[in-house]
Each structure stands twice: as C-alpha cells, then as structure tokens.
Amino acid sequence: MHGRRLAAELRVLKAASGLGLVQMAARTHCSKSSLERYLNGKLLPSRQAVEAISQACRGDTARLVALWELAVADPPAWRRPAQLPHDVAGFTGRSSELARLAALVPDAGDAVAIAVIDGVAGVGKSALAVHFAHRVAGRFPDGQLHVDLRGSGAGPMPPAEAQARFLRALAPDLRHLPAEVGERAALLRSLIGERRLLVLLDDAATTDQVRALLPGNAGCLVLVTSRHRLGGLVARDGAHHLALSPLTAAESADLLAAAAGAGRVAAEPEAAARLTRQCGYLPLNLRVAAEQLIVRPSLTIAGLLADRRRWAGREAARAQAVWAFNVLGLRDGPAELVETLAMAYLIEHQDLPSGLVEPDPVAARVADGRAAGHAVGVVRGDGLGRAGGDGEGVAGAEVVGQQTEG
After folding, report:
1. What does the DSSP assignment read for 319-378?
2. Residue 387 backbone zone (phi > 0: left; psi -120 to 50: alpha; other: beta)
3. 290 C-beta neighbours (distance < 10 Å), count
4. What are the tens digits of pLDDT across the range 104-130?
5. What is the DSSP letter of 238?
6. How many CA atoms lie within 13 A of 135 on its CB side?
7. Residue 115 in contact with residue 104, Cβ under 8 Å?
8. Which of 22, 53, 54, 191 is the most buried (most CB within 10 A)?
9. Model confidence at 1, in pLDDT bands (50, 70, 90)?
10. What is the pLDDT of residues 344-395, one digit of tens each?
11. 175 vs 46, 164, 168, 184, 212, CA distance in Å?
12. What per-residue string of b and e applies to 111-124 under the rule 16 or more CB within 10 Å gives b?
C-alpha cells in the first residue's frame, strides 16, 4: 500500500536529517503526536504536512507529493467486523421461527436474503434475531454488522448516520465520507464487494432506513426487526416476512424456569401459570418478572403476584383520582403535584376507589396536613397561587411543599 511506503520514506528522511520530533514539530507546525502517527503509518498526512516535512528535512518534495497522491487513491483497508450483541442466556422456544429463518440463509451464489421480523413491543424480536445470528455467524466468513436504528424511540437514527457507522466499521482508515445518502450507499456496497456478510438491523422504523444499508452482492443475509410490517421491503426488495407472536404457555413456563430457576417454578406451578398469563406470554415481561424473583430470593411467585396486584391497585386509583380531580377544574399543574393532590383530596374526603389497597403515603401526609382542601385552588385556573381571591391557594401550596419535601 502506498500509505505504508510514504510513512517509510518519511522515517528515512527524518533519520537522514538528524532532527528530533520536537525540532520537526517546531519547523513544520505539526504537533508531535501527529508527526508520530505520520511516521508510523497510523495516519495519512495532508499534502501540506508532507510538503512541510520534506522542506524541514531537505527532502525531494515533488517525489514525496507524488507518492502521497498515490496513497490518497489507495482503497481503504478492510477490517472484518464482529458486531453482534451477546446472545440471550436461556433462550427458549421459537423452534418453528428458527427453522423458517434457517431456510433463508443463502449460499455463496444466491441473491442477498432479507428477513423482516415484526411484532409488538416485548415479544422478543431482537432476542430471536440475535440468537439466530449467532447460530449462523460461521456461514458468513467476512463478518457481521449490527446497528440499533432506534425506530421505537423518539428519534430514529437517520440513514446517513447508520451508513457512516458501517463505513467506519468496515474501513477505519476511510478518509472521506460522501454527504449524500445515495453516494454513501454506493460506497458501502463497493466496500462489501464480493464478501459474505451477515447484517442485523435492529428496531427499524422505515424502509428507507433499511434500504440505505442493504448490501448488493450475493451470499449476504440481512435480518431486520421492527414494530412495523415494512411491507415495502417485501414488495420491492423481495424480503421475507416473519410476524412474531407471543410465546405459548409451555414456552413461557420454560422461559420463566430458565430465568428464575426451575425449582421455584416447579414448587408453585399454579402461581407460575398465573404469572405467565399476567405477563401476556411476552418474553420481555417474563424476564422482568424473573429478575424481580432473582433479586428477592425469599419472595415466592405467589408473593410477587400479590405485589403486582397492589401495584396495579395503586396505579388504577391514581389514574382515577387524577381524572376525578381534573373534572373539578384541575389543569396545567406539574404532573407529580397533580397526582399527589388528587390522591390527597380523595383521602381527605374518604372517597378512594375500591380497588386501592394501600393509599399513596405522600398523598396521605398531604391530606393529614389539611392541604388537600386547597388543592383545587392551588392548580386551577392560570396555575399556582389562586383560590377564590382570598390567598388560601398560596397557603395551601406552601403546606403541600412542606408536606411533600423529604
């Protein structure tokens, strides 16, 4: 490669000049750290830097600049990516889905294969894709690329940003990134060339995100997960659609046993069955429940179910209280203050919903402090501080602040 040859020529020139790095830095106006990287070939210098080094060391500037031009034209060095996230421990079920995905893995001469896995939040799309990718990674000798496209969040990743990540992963020495998405897509396909890659595009929001990252050569596999069907990929790009449903009851029990411990599940089969039903047979919900059991070894599954009922009762009561309080004229107050005052109002007037098992402790203290009687005035109208013009709203707000602090 011409870049390595240029670095070698610069080292010879430095040695012949007798200059140290500090002296070269002073004469070339390059930093010492940059000069070290130029000389060891880790960074290609700019044309101006080459000219400055040559002049400082009395070298053949024209020859060195010609060599630099050849180095700039060199294709970037390839680096084999291995970007798959770690596999999920205790992965269970999905045998039919795994078999369908296995049938899509292309041979070296086959066209690029695209699989779109969609489903609701928590159904295990990413876990399935990552697990399968690890299973077949050995069939793609040139590596694996992965990116979280953030499709379910507030800000999906722009296609250009995802392309830049892949380009830097494949060619860390790449000196120029095109600005336009189409040019970046073409460069990405050129870098991949005839190589066989597995590409995992997690949590895609749109078909445009996916198309900007598709390899163009045969033998590659692209796995896409999304909460949306992305039907355009099926219609225009020949993608295969896999709709992921919740686990079966048996698969859910196996997952809970694998994650929380087979002994605990076997000791409470009926409670375990109720817990899996409450979790909607969704893998993410089941793992969250298993985590609660793991961090509290003395907690039984029946005890966890009781905790969940109490939590559900409090949340239902809080929502109902806020709704009722809004009917009384509440508006535009801070959310936490609105909820606390609403609960306090109902506690004070003994009008709690029947589903409430344990009153909110902060709201109970507020009610005990007689602040709830001012609650409507505190947050009604144009905000804090008015209650019928007599100033009681301000006093009520102060009491609330005292009662809720700490």
Report:
1. HHHHHHHHHTTB-S--HHHHHHHHHHHHHHTT---TT-SS--HHHHHHHHTT-GGGHHHH
2. beta
3. 23
4. 999 888 899 999 999 999 999 999 999
5. -
6. 15
7. yes
8. 53
9. low
10. 555 444 444 443 334 444 444 444 444 444 443 433 333 333 333 333 333 3
11. 11, 12, 10, 13, 20
12. ebbbbbbbbeebbb
Please calculate the CA angle 275-278-281 and round it to the nearest 5 degrees. Answer: 90
Beta bridge partners of 147: 201
3-state DSSP helix/strand/coil % of the chain, to nearest 5: 55, 10, 35
Hey, how many other C-beta atoms are within 10 angstroms of the C-beta on 326?
14
Q: Please state, in angstroms and rounded to a whole number, the distance separating the CA atoms of residues 65 and 69.
A: 6
| Apex 288 CA angle, 282 and 292, nearest 5 | 140
Q: Could you tell me which residues are beta bridge partners of residue 223?
A: 115, 200
pTM above 0.90, yes or no: no
- Name the 3-class secondary structure at 227: coil
**Beta carbons within 8 Å of 225's beta carbon, 6+ residues apart:** 116, 117, 118, 125, 126, 129, 201, 202, 203, 204
Spatial contact of 292 and 259, defined as CB atoms under 8 Å apart: no
Q: Please state, in angstroms and rounded to a whole number, the distance separating the CA atoms of residues 51 and 67.
A: 12
Identify the burial level of 397 via C-beta atoms within 10 angstroms of its C-beta, where 0-12 means exposed, 13-18 middle and 19 or more buried.
buried
Gap between the Cα atoms of 267 and 290, Å rounded:
15
Amino acid letter, residue 225 = T
For residue 221, give the H/E element and its range: strand 221-226
Q: How far apart are CA 1 and CA 49, in angstroms?
A: 19
Strands (E), 113-168: 113-118, 144-148
Q: How far apart are CA 305 and CA 222, in angstroms?
A: 40
Tokens of 145: 């690329």
Helix (H) or strand (E) holding 202: strand 198-204
How far apart CA 105 and CA 329 sit, in angstroms, is 61
